Every structure is written in structure tokens, then in C-alpha cells.
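# step 3/5: fold
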Amino acid sequence: MATLTHPTSKTHLFTKLSLKPKKFSSPSRIRMALQENAPSLAVVGVTGAVGQEFLSVLSDRDFPYRSIKMLASKRSAGKQLTFQDRNYTIEELTEDSFDGVDIALFSAGGSISKHFGPVAVEKGSVVVDNSSAFRMEEGIPLVIPEVNPEAMEGIKVGTGKGALIANPNCSTIICLMAATPLHKHAKVIRMVVSTYQAASGAGAAAMEELELQTREVLEGKPPTCNIFKQQYAFNLFSHNAPILSNGYNEEEMKLVKETRKIWNDMNVKVTATCIRVPVMRAHAESVNLQFEKPIDEYTAKDILKSAPGVVVIDDRASNHFPTPLEVSNKDDVAVGRIRRDVSQDGYKGLDIFVCGDQIRKGAALNAIQIAEMLL
């Protein structure tokens, strides 16, 4: 599942509700994931793009579990899906869904998380939530495992004590995977981020609409605009998140606030401009960094080459740098265009270009890595 092909192929899209049997493992591979002494899992929102990616990542990483509940809305209840060569019936999400569940992976939207997250915690589940519902709540860890694993210190499965852990926004994760190693070396005092965000960030329906619009425009037909309310194919526009009173949209302010919380630095200056671009999957970001201490581009490149979860693609001679296509369905965040900011004095400024798979590292993989730290 979740393998992207040429944009004209239907196999790259996540079909929310059809849920024909999908195999998340190769029959020739010996599976070690199903273990009697492992935790019990629940996947909330299993029919959505991120929910399906949860299953893909769990399978890819042989995450150990003794049982797994597939949870979704009432309209999806009763449908069948296949995971690691076993058939499962999707169950309706209710307040009784979390009895005996050790780890609950949530990706069903903020309102669902706000209602059912505390219910799951009360029943002893550790909730890893992919929505924005709890990210900025005091006392709830906001975690990127490669960046701030210490934030969830003391939270483990098997203690009988529930807890809530928030998965950061996809743009924040992709940005900080690259910026944090440099921040730890020279301390970022100001960061300017411009994002180029794919349709995948708005879910399976947005990906389908981009493909549909592309066909329609090429055929000279008016584009269908149900998700974004304006033409997406062959166009770009300001991110569709609500605009706030300060003129920023919610997506931009998530980058500002979440960076400060994750870095535990309320003084770091962050500004962002978030743009939707007609890319199917994987976000790109231009990041300008101003540092307290000098750092040159060669040192920066060496630091990033050894950073966990980061790959450097920076070939100036052939003009080869990260692209969304190269990182789609990949775990690592790619970084390139590493260069000194010539507008700043000395060696206290850098520009970098970052690409990361929004559904994978920007959502599902980060959540599964958090879950791995609970074991």
C-alpha cells in the first residue's frame, strides 16, 4: 500500500472507503511482529490516508503487537481489510473501543481526538495523536524522536497508566529534522520558512481532486473544486488553513508555536509563509537560518550528513537537489541547497532546502517511532 506511481495511475491514491483487501507484507517474508507478550494496538481513523500509512509503517518496521483493532466511523464499520496476511473487520469507534488497548494511534481529526483521546487515556492507553488537538497543551509532550525524545521521558506501556503524546504538524517535523542538528551546533535565533505543500497534506480526497483537475484542465474542461474551492492543477496558492487576526494562517502559526515548544525556547524568532503547490505527495520547504554562533556551509553539510533521519542531496555541479518525487514513500528527510546567506554578515546565516514525505515522516512514521520509544 501507499506506493506512488505515475500521476495518471489510480494505484497511487488512497481510497478512503472502498478498502479492497490490501496486503501490507510479502508472503515470502517471515513476520516477527505478532507476539504474545507485545502491546495491543488500536488504529483510529484506519480508512484515511494517514491511517492506511500507519499500517504500512507498522508492517515495514515489524512493530511488535499481540493484537490490533481497526477503528473508524460508523459508515466504515463492517468493512474488511487485510493486514500482514490476516483479515480484520473495521469496528466503529466508541468509548468502549479502548478496553485492553496499550497504544492507540489516532489520525481521525481534532474533534475525534478531543473526545476519544482522554477516554483512551482514562482506560490506560498511551495515545499518540496526529491531530492539532493537544499539541500546544501544557504538560502534553510534542515529540519528534530524533529531535526531543526527552520530552516523553517516563511514559511507557505496560504500567497501566495512560498518557497523551502529540505528533507535530507535518511541516514542523520536516523543517526541524533538518534545522535542529544545526540549531544544536550554533543556536538558531531566527528562522524564516517558506513551504511548498503537496495535496497529500489535505488527505486522500485532495490527492484525487488534483488528479481529476489535471485531467479536466488538459481536456479543456472547467476544474472540479470541492476541496480547495479554486483551481489547484497548474496553479499554486496560499495554504487553505483559516487566516488569523495577525494575517498569518493557522498552518504558519503552527510552525511558529510548535518550533518554540519542541526546542523549549520561547525566544527563538520564527516566521512562515505556507503555500499549496500542485504536487501529489511530499512537502518542500525553503528555510533561512540566522545563528548566534558562526557556522559555515561545509560544517553544516557535515553535521547534516551525520544527522539521524536526514539525507543530504547537494550536488551543485549537476544542479541536483531534493525534490518531492525523490522523497515520496521514503523515511528520510532530504536536505540540499546548503549555502551561506550572503545577506548576513560573517558566517551567521544559512539557507537550506528541505523535502520530506508528509504522510510518512510528516505523520505516520513519526507516530510509529514515538510508539517504538514506549516499548
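# step 4/5: annotate
Residues 1-30 have pLDDT under 50 and may be disordered.
# step 5/5: archive (pending)
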